[in-house]
Amino acid sequence: MKKILIMIVGCFFTSLGLYVLKSASLVTGGTAGLSLSASYLFPISFGVLFTIINIPFYILSYKKMGKEFTISTILAVTTVTVLSSIITTYFPPLAFHPLVGSIVGGIIIGAGVVVLFMNGSSLGGAQILSITLQKQFNWNMGKTNFIFDTIVILIGMYSIGVLRGFYSILSVLIVSTMLSRFKEQIAKRNTKPVKVTSTEPILETSSM
Fold first, then answer.
1. How far apart are CA 64 and CA 57, in angstroms?
2. Cα separation of the two ends of the chain
3. Which DSSP string do the residues of the chain spell out, in sequence order?
4. What's the rounded Cα separation, in Å, for the pair 108 and 170?
5. What residue spans define the domains of the chain?
6. pTM, to two decimals
């Protein structure tokens, strides 16, 4: 029950941060940003694209991170989708300067993502890739996430313009910096303990 509540808190922060970015007319990184950018180019809804793009990452997650992490990630993605819809419907409309929106939104999203990672979950896409590379090769999670998200935002510049694209990159940099700050704790939380399977007796030594 505690794990579910923590996941909801992380999802709420993430959804709120996305709302702030949207209020500043900025885009985000990850598969959400990629899906949003693709929806402008193809006659396919955001929800369908978001689901399709995440499928390969779910498979990677299942193979590298296990069943529990993958299920938790799918639930987190679904929760963020629902909470984002609720916030957009019932929260008062906001208007942020792009610089303020990128900083505030980045900090809030970063907090939400860190909470999710520390709770053994993620929001799919690049986050699954980042934590897998961190676990397998000790690659810096924040840098990997930043590179992927920056590429996504560069694609999104086609629809929001260059200036707002750079503001969006700033928000991604903030999120990535927060991930890097907590990378060791996240890695420990998502590393399965090695079970001792040896049946050899433990020899005791006595002093003479």
1. 10
2. 54
3. -HHHHHHHHHHHHHHHHHHHHHHTT----HHHHHHHHHHHHSSS-HHHHHHHHHHHHHHHHHHHT-HHHHHHHHHHHHHHHHHHHHHHHHSPP----HHHHHHHHHHHHHHHHHHHHHTT---STHHHHHHHHHHHH---HHHHHHHHHHHHHHHHHHHH-HHHHHHHHHHHHHHHHHHHHTHHHHHHHTSPPPPP---PPPPP----
4. 13
5. 2-189
6. 0.76
Cα 154 to Cα 27, 37, 59, 75: the distances in Å are 10, 10, 26, 28
Per-position pLDDT tens, the chain of length 208? 788 899 899 999 988 998 898 888 887 778 877 876 777 678 887 667 877 888 888 888 888 888 888 888 888 888 888 888 888 888 888 888 999 999 999 999 999 988 988 887 777 777 788 778 887 788 877 788 788 888 888 887 877 788 988 998 899 889 888 888 876 666 666 555 444 444 444 333 334 3
